[in-house]
Design goal:
The chain is mostly helical and 169 residues long. The chain has three helices and two strands, in the order αβααβ. The protein has helices at 2-114, 125-133, 139-145, and strands spanning 116-118, 161-163.
């Protein structure tokens, strides 16, 4: 019986070693598989992290572009406002200039009207010179300015339009 026990013990030892060998091999394979899976998981996590960082960089770049575009839009609005104000100022200046020219033209027209004298009954060049130029002795100036209309300074006709020279003498 002792022999049987010894054989049983040996068989059991062999069986245990075989079980341990198989178990060890299975555990080793399981550990290797777990290590491969962990490696794959780490690689996937790294890939996901890189993608996340890339998206963050893209988002930052897009935000920067949006900010720059907003700044450009503000600058464009300011430039448009400046241009509008400048245009309005130019239009005001042009309107003032046109108004000034119109007043000058009106003044010239009024002056021209004043400087044309229509001969009335009883007029003479000396009387017209006295009334229009303030000095009767200036009648030759009127005669010179109207030589195309007057042939004889002693002969002027009612209704005749005479140009009166400027009163600057």
């Amino acid at each position: 019986m002792a022999k049987d026990k010894k054989e049983d013990k040996e068989k059991k030892g062999l069986l245990d070693r075989a079980i341990n060998a198989v178990t060890g091999r299975d555990e080793k394979q399981a550990a290797e598989e777990a290590e491969r899976e962990a490696k794959v998981a780490r690689a996937e996590a790294a890939r996901i992290e890189r993608q996340k960082q890339a998206r963050e960089r893209e988002a930052e770049a897009a935000e920067k572009k949006a900010s720059e575009a907003e700044e450009k839009a503000k600058e464009a609005e300011k430039e448009a406002a400046r241009a509008k104000a400048e245009l309005a100022q130019m239009k005001r200046a042009e309107a003032i200039e046109r108004s000034k020219k119109a007043r000058e033209e009106q003044k010239k027209a009024e002056e021209a009207k004043k400087r044309v004298y229509v001969v009335k009954s009883g007029d003479s060049l000396s009387k017209i010179a006295r009334d229009m130029l303030g000095d009767a002795s200036r009648w030759p100036e009127i005669f010179e300015a109207n030589k195309d209309k007057i042939k004889d300074p002693n002969l002027i006709h009612v209704g005749q339009e005479l140009t009166i020279p400027s009163d600057e003498n």
